[in-house]
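SAMPLE LOG
Freezer: B-3
Tube label: C17
Construct: single chain, 183 aa
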Amino acid sequence: MNPTPTAGEPRRAARRIQVAGSAAARATLGVLVGLLTWSQLPTLLPGWQATVILTGSMGPAIDPGDVVVYDHIPARTLVAGQVVLLRDPADPDRLLTHRVHRVLPDGRIVTAGDANPRPDSTASPARNILGIGRLRVPWIGMPVLWWRQARYELLALTALGLLALAWLATRRPDAPSQEDGDA
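STRUCTURE (predicted):
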C-alpha cells in the first residue's frame, strides 16, 4: 500500500536538491581554490617558483596543464632521476621541465623528457638549472595552457562554469513554508 504524497513533498524534495547542489558547488570551488593555493603559496618563499607544463614531453608523470613547483638547489647536488627546471641550452629564452638523465664529469647536465625516446642532444651547463621539482599540482594550469594554445572557447566555458558554481554556492535554498511541515 503506497502512502499518498502530501502537497509539500515535491517542495521538500526540490529544497533538498538545492541544498545538495549548493554544497557540491562549494566543495568543487573549495578544491579548485585549494589546488590554486598549493600551486602558488610556495612561490612566496625565496628561491621557489612555479610553472605550467605546456607540452607532453614529461608524460605520463607530468601532464600538460599541471603546475610544477620548484625549489632552487645547487646544481652540483643533482642526481639522475630528479625533475628539474632549466633554460633550454638550444634556446636560452625557453624553459624546460625534464628529468636529469646523467651528470657529466665536467658538471654539465644531460636531461630527457620522460616521453622522449632519447636524452636531449645538448648537455646543459649547471648555471642553466633553475630548480628541482618538489610538487606537482594537477590540472590547475589548464586555463594558461588553453590561453597559450588560443583555445578561447575552453576558457569561455571554464569562466561560465566557474560563474555557475559561484552562483550555486551562494544561492540560498528556498525557505520552507508552514504547509511543508518543515518549520
